[in-house]
């Protein structure tokens, strides 16, 4: 009785169909594990083999991890690990050469039984390296059959072609994962940096309030008391000096309070972002203010950034726009929060490099938005007013946590 031969891909059209199916599976998504699972399934279905394992080279250690497998071994994905050089798979990874074992795996000195993968239940196997340019070695692809199967050079060539396709796709998936991780880390760093800056501002504001301001207030009381008790006729010069000292104390106290406000806006703690924005807008003289503000709380670093952006933008409206009406809108929507500040003033050309300095301080606004992962959109033309929209991506949980912060 003749033994089944090869992968059953003697027909070039069938071989091409399998390769196209592998390409389609390789473009199914950016995840390494879903990609490996799709490839394993396509290979076993197309070649009438019984099981396929996709072992991927680890990023930091000289070892391989099972990244994809056909059932019932898909439960072992991420669990089975092999050091380079261990077993047939480890040997293939180390030598970058294929191995074909038609029968009696136990007699091959390279073979090491892996209980979780039940190698003793399968007679024949082919193991090929997955490598390509510029990815290099990415992993090892194994197929197994229960019945003895005669795999020839053509079968190995096809599997190595499949391995090259998978290697390129795995490399792209890894690059995508690293980029996503880098972006996430950048976002966390920016958030932590803003939080650290605001914590330091808050500490300095508290020190000024609790130390310098309080001492100035106390000094002012003492000076007033001394001036009250001085004899007007005999100590006119002293009274003049005391009056000057009192005026200096009051001026210094005003400056300290202004410094506290610049370091950390107390209005955010007292009123929240919506109330703080309303207070900012109503501080514009000679302009009608239209408010549409979502009063849900946001993460602290986002509230501070949006408040500072509004503060700077409205200050520039006051200085440059000559506006009769100013709209301030804050909306927490699916996936983010959006702040829009619009006026009907003189407008400007956003493409004019001088606008960033003389118009709306766009460079600073964009910098603050980028620190919290946001974007800025400016719409303006001379004579038509200006709209500045800041969008910061957030999930619903972040908004809910922000609201809970002050409940």
From TrEMBL:
Residues 306-396 form the Histidine kinase domain. SMART domains: GAF, HATPase_c. Keywords: 4Fe-4S, ATP-binding, Cytoplasm, Iron, Iron-sulfur, Kinase, Metal-binding, Nucleotide-binding, Phosphoprotein, Transferase, Two-component regulatory system. It catalyses: ATP + protein L-histidine = ADP + protein N-phospho-L-histidine. The keyword Flavoprotein does not apply. The keyword Ion transport does not apply. GO terms for molecular function: kinase activity. Signal peptide: none annotated. It is found in: Cytoplasm. Its EC number is 2.7.13.3. PROSITE patterns: HIS_KIN. It holds the Pfam family GAF_2. Its cofactor is [4Fe-4S] cluster. Member of the two-component regulatory system NreB/NreC involved in the control of dissimilatory nitrate/nitrite reduction in response to oxygen. NreB functions as a direct oxygen sensor histidine kinase which is autophosphorylated, in the absence of oxygen, probably at the conserved histidine residue, and transfers its phosphate group probably to a conserved aspartate residue of NreC. NreB/NreC activates the expression of the nitrate (narGHJI) and nitrite (nir) reductase operons, as well as the putative nitrate transporter gene narT. This is Oxygen sensor histidine kinase NreB. It comes from Actinomycetospora lemnae.
């Amino acid at each position: 009785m003749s033994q089944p031969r090869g992968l059953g891909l003697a027909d070039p059209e069938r071989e091409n169909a399998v390769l196209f199916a592998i390409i389609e599976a390789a473009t199914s998504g950016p995840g390494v594990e879903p990609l490996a699972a799709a490839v394993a399934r396509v290979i076993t279905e197309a070649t009438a083999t019984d099981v396929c394992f996709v072992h991927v080279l680890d990023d930091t250690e000289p070892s391989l991890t099972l990244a994809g497998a056909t059932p019932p071994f898909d439960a072992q994905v991420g669990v089975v690990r092999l050091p380079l050089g261990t077993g047939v798979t480890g040997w293939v990874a180390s030598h970058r050469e294929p191995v074909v074992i038609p029968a009696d795996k136990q007699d091959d000195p390279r073979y090491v039984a892996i209980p979780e993968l039940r190698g003793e239940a399968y007679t024949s196997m082919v193991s090929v390296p997955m490598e390509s340019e510029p990815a290099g070695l990415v992993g090892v692809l194994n197929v197994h059959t229960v019945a003895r199967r005669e795999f020839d050079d053509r079968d190995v060539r096809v599997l190595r072609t499949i391995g090259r396709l998978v290697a390129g796709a795995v490399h792209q998936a890894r690059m995508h994962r690293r980029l996503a991780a880098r972006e996430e880390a950048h976002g966390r760093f920016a958030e932590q940096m803003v939080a650290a800056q605001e914590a330091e501002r808050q500490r300095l504001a508290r020190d000024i309030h609790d130390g310098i301001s309080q001492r100035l207030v106390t000094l002012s009381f003492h000076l007033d008391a001394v001036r009250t008790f001085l004899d007007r006729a005999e100590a006119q010069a002293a009274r003049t000096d005391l009056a000057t000292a009192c005026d200096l104390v009051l001026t210094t106290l005003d400056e300290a309070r202004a410094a506290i406000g610049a370091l950390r806006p107390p209005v955010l703690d007292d009123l929240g972002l919506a109330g703080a924005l309303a207070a900012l807008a109503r501080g514009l003289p000679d302009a009608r203010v239209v408010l549409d503000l979502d009063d849900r709380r946001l993460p602290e670093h986002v509230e501070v950034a949006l408040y500072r952006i509004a503060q700077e933008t409205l200050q520039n409206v006051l200085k440059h726009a000559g506006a009769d009406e100013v709209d301030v809108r804050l909306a927490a929507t699916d996936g983010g929060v959006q702040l829009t500040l619009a006026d009907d003033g003189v407008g400007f050309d956003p493409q004019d490099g001088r606008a960033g300095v003389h118009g709306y301080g766009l460079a600073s606004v964009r910098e603050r938005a980028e620190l919290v992962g946001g974007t800025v959109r400016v719409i303006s033309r001379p004579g038509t007013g200006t709209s500045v929209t800041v969008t910061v991506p957030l999930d619903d949980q972040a908004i809910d946590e922000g609201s809970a912060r002050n409940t």
